[in-house]
Design goal:
alpha+beta
Length: about 425
């Protein structure tokens, strides 16, 4: 039984040596910072491309609004084959051809709006609407980049957990070797060796699970930033100002609030545009025709130019209904802006409180790691002197691993709390 245990230990050490040699042979992956990850997401994130396409569609509305104020020009050419040609003399020396056998006609016409009050206000409404769409795009971009930052810090935390798991394997392996030696000397029983070996098995399984979690976190981050190359994240939490951030500053920076304000302006401009549709519109028009036959003025061309006044006196109440709808939309956007203002104020207050709480939790976790490490050293010394049981040593090892994992989780929660506060203040993601 003792030989089997030694063989198992030798196999574990051999596999560990092979893994270490493989790790040394692989080139070190380049580091990736949070700023680099967000820059890559801005360029390649697929969801962000969808939002960019939506913004491009919204901007075409501005082109359509300008088209109502631009002149329209149309040209036409026509060939007609008549069954007979018709002409008659108008003097002894002149003949008037009014229908040739092969008839050619060409025309050019234009229309220019001169006075269209509703069109100018509609253009103003569309401009505000496009601005609102741009602000909504910024909101979507912020949401996507916030997810990228969360995935980045999640990957960073898995690195800390993996480091703790590797350290636990080394400690468990040393404990097993010590138990083997003491068993050979007759100082301990076979139960101590089995417990130490079980602790090593559990440590190795924990490392495998942490490795899978790390690969999963890196895979999620790679998908968000559309990167196929290997990299290793390097986290650095940005320092947040300790003093409370101004609500007015946050309202100025938050794209959601700006989108609602522009939505109010757009709806109000639409309301005034529908009201001005009761006014008449004035436009100029002109036309030019050329042909290969004579008109009754003995000429082969004709032109006309003039002005046109259009005034819709009654439309069944459509304009009033549209004006009422636009007014209701403006009131809705204004009410949503008021709700968002209150929510941002609450988010700022909650964000400061959450970040302060998580920072205290991080300091507590750091102290827990220090105490767990000190406890492990004391128990190890007592165990070597025969004043402590092996179960106490194994529990101390587990306590250190749990404290290190709790510290890694505390680092993640501080990072996310910082991101949440900066997002509430409108300073995330920055330029």
């Amino acid at each position: 039984m003792r030989q089997v245990t030694k063989a198992g230990l030798g196999m574990v050490l051999l596999l560990a040596g092979l893994q270490t040699a493989t790790a040394r042979a692989e080139p070190e992956a380049p580091e990736l910072t949070l700023e680099q990850a967000m820059a890559m997401a801005r360029k390649a994130n697929r969801s962000l491309r969808v939002e960019q396409a939506h913004l491009a569609q919204a901007r075409t509305n501005l082109e359509l609004a300008w088209a109502a104020l631009y002149p329209t020009v149309a040209a036409q050419g026509k060939y007609t084959r008549n069954n007979i040609a018709f002409s008659f003399p108008i003097s002894p020396t002149e003949t008037l051809t009014v229908q040739p056998k092969n008839q050619l006609d060409g025309s050019l016409s234009f229309t220019v709006p001169l006075l269209a009050p509703s069109a100018y206000l509609a253009l103003q409404a569309v401009r505000s609407g496009v601005g609102a769409s741009e602000a909504q795009f910024e909101t979507s971009q912020t949401t996507i980049l916030f997810g990228v930052a969360q995935a980045f810090y999640a990957a960073a935390i898995t690195e800390e957990v993996m480091s703790a798991r590797r350290s636990n394997i080394e400690v468990a392996r040393a404990t097993l070797q010590n138990a083997q030696t003491r068993y050979q000397n007759g100082s301990v029983t076979k139960v101590d060796v089995d417990r130490a070996e079980l602790a090593l098995v559990r440590a190795e399984q924990g490392a495998r699970e942490s490795h899978f979690a790390r690969e999963q976190a890196y895979r999620a981050l790679s998908t968000l930033i559309q990167s196929e190359r290997r990299f290793k994240v390097r986290a650095a939490v940005a320092a947040t100002a300790e003093e409370p951030l101004s609500l007015e500053s946050a309202l100025h920076l938050r794209p959601e609030f700006r989108a609602l304000e522009l939505g109010v302006r757009s709806a109000d401009a639409q309301r005034r545009a529908y009201a001005w549709r009761w006014a008449p519109t004035l436009s100029a028009f002109g036309s030019l025709r050329v042909f290969n036959y004579d008109n009754f003025a003995s000429e082969q061309h004709a032109w006309a130019i003039g002005a046109q006044l259009d005034w819709v006196l009654y439309d069944g109440g459509v304009r009033d209904a549209q004006r009422h709808l636009a007014r209701a939309q403006a009131e809705e956007a204004a009410a949503q802006a008021a709700v968002l203002r209150d929510a941002i104020g609450d988010d700022l207050a909650n964000g400061h409180g959450l970040l302060d709480t998580k920072r205290h939790a991080q300091r507590a976790a750091e102290r827990s790691v220090a105490l767990a490490l000190e406890t492990l050293e004391l128990v190890r010394t007592q165990y070597a002197a025969g004043n402590a049981a092996q179960i106490d040593l194994l529990q101390a090892q587990d306590g250190l691993v749990a404290a290190e994992e709790a510290l890694a989780q505390a680092h993640f929660e501080v990072a996310v709390a910082d991101l949440t506060l900066r997002r509430a203040a409108g300073s995330f993601p920055g330029q």
